[in-house]
């Protein structure tokens, strides 16, 4: 597995290279600015990219824009974005094209190596992984007519975990319920959010999107 | 006495010019009035020429410019023009004729007998005998005394009229002052916002990254301990270093927000403390320094602290000099006798100074030729 990294902070960049290297993930290139990063993406065609939201020159959202641009260069390129703080509009920007393979995590999540690697793998598998912090933030800001308000508390828990990129079995484990029960909740969520029956993977992304856009 | 004569002379010259422009205005007034009816912009332009000349004339005489409105009021300008056309010549000639009469009165005893008898000198009475002429010097003194009072007074009156009609109306002046204050308040808020963004950036891009690095290295350590405990040690040390860096960075950010020493000892006292701790022998010169807003003093303190750190780390200097001066802008100069060649891209120090100063709309300049000396100069506006 090969990844390209965009991180301007030298210590973090080296740390990421070390971390991924010891876990058997090859870092094909590690850039400290958007231009080098995009050049590396074109040249290396990695399996995934890991991008810091704040990159030079202005340290606002250059990394995010670079990630969106990388996905334009290589459609469907799995992107894992690391951010210093939660900003749900960032997540909407990334998920805007309605396809999966996107992750949005707070930077400190790299400390929990197992979870971080899990997220990376989910993203590469085409899943959507949102930081629990993003999910919490999205949960509190809901309009009155939002279909998500029609969900039961349990269904919302399931949707939150879906947004974090968990699989059905992962959700079942977290909520200590059976897998068929989770499937039933997910079916209810799809119905309540008015998502057409199609392949389950894509519907999961759409559900998360509905969640984000409300 | 000399001053009086000079004052009368200046007033006379001023009034003579006024008499001339008044006369021109009188003849031009009907033409200007017709022009105003058929082609108003052209009339306004012509009026502006006359007004501009009058402003110069009054400013040169009084040494004080007439304040100009951002939006000139054509009615007030027109009113001045009519007033000047009607009075300029009379007032001017009156002012000039008084000293003329005084001079004449002195000279009458010398020439009255040449003048034909049926049309004698008559100022203020017909002089037809030596007795009559003998009183003339006395009359001259009277004229002179009148001149000393009246001529400057006439000139002053003319400038007062011009000043009151050509200055912006009271309402307009107030509106301009409000606009000025609004702009300076907006600039102050802007500076405050820039300062908050700087603090946010320092915390997120520096301190937080250090702490993330700690977490990340501990994460790698955790994995290593499970597999190969011996490989964990250097990573633990790295995590420890990153934690120390994070703490140092946090202290730096807090100090950059507001160093407590500023409140206790003022800017000069705080900087004297910095200099006492400086590794390179440094002298401090403070001239005309007052209290500046806390944020500005804090930035000034930061600039000097960073500059001294740079000098100690990179310059190789034997001596350094810090100068603080001025109320607004506050000027900071740090000069060292090191080897020069300071490179802004090289470290974060100079870039940090520039960023901090830019937040206050200040100016940073660095002059550091190879071989030295290096001079850092910073101007910080104090927002007044």
Could you characterize the architecture of this molecule?
The complex is a heterodimer of chains A (214) and B (384). By secondary structure, chain A is an alpha/beta fold. Chain A folds into two domains: 2-131, Response regulator (Rossmann fold), CATH 3.40.50; 142-213, Arc Repressor Mutant, subunit A. Chain A contains ten helices and six strands, in the order βαβαβαβαβαβααααα. Chain A has helices at 10-22, 34-44, 62-73, 88-95, 113-124, 132-140, 153-163, 168-175, 179-192, 200-213; strands at residues 2-6, 26-31, 48-52, 79-83, 102-106, 128-130. Chain A has a six-stranded parallel sheet, with helices on both faces. In chain A, 43% of the residues are buried. The longest helix of chain B has 58 residues, at 170-227. By secondary structure, chain B is α+β, with helices and mostly antiparallel strands. Chain B is 70% helix and 8% strand. In chain B, a hairpin with a 6-residue loop joins strand 4 and strand 5 (374-380). Chain A binds chain B through residues 9, 11-12, 15-16, 18-19, 22-23, 54, 59, 84-85, 107-108, 110-113, 116, and chain B through 201, 204-205, 208-213, 215-220, 222-224, 242, 245.
Briefly say what this structure is.
The complex is a heterodimer of chains A (214) and B (384). Chain A has 214 residues and is an alpha/beta fold.
